[in-house]
Amino acid sequence: MTFPWHLYVMALGYILAGMNHFRKPRLYMRMIPEFFPNPKLLNIISGALEIILGILLCIPAASPYAAVGIIALLIAIFPANLFMYMNEKAALGMPKWALLLRLPLQIVLIIWAYQYSNFIK
Predict the structure, then answer these.
(1) Does residue 121 have a pLDDT over 80?
(2) Is the model's pTM score more than 0.85?
(3) Distance between CA 29 and CA 32 in Å, rounded?
(4) Where, by residue number, does the polypeptide cross the bilayer (predicted)?
């Protein structure tokens, strides 16, 4: 089974994003809302999940499960995107309009992942 090129683009995006969690952990820890415990651990977990799920997307037998995992991850990290919009320190200097656009972008990413979850068939 060969996958469409855009699946590989998505997989690479998640792998690179996950790697960035380890390259620049403080950047990501600033995005985690204060009411979540242990931001360092949450950063490690989310970065590792992005890498693992990105790799699993490229394995035909695991791809549908990885897509569902990505959907769950995107839902789980939504509070961080909302926190970035509401908290200037967490916004990383991004303009308000860009932070606002990140919120519906999560829906687009969920729909993209859903395309590979085999629920459509």
Answers:
(1) no
(2) yes
(3) 5
(4) 6-22, 42-62, 68-85, 97-115
pLDDT per residue as tens digits for the range 38-97 = 999 999 999 999 999 999 999 999 999 999 999 999 999 999 999 999 988 888 888 999
DSSP code string of 36-97:
SS-HHHHHHHHHHHHHHHHHHHTSTTTHHHHHHHHHHHHHHHHHHHHHHHH-TTTTTT--HH
Place of tokens 């569902």: 68
Q: What's the alpha-carbon Rg for the chain, to the nearest Å?
A: 15
Give the count of alpha carbons within 13 A of 20, CB side only: 9
What are the boundaries of each domain within the chain?
5-114
Count of CB atoms situated within 10 Å of the CB of 34: 10
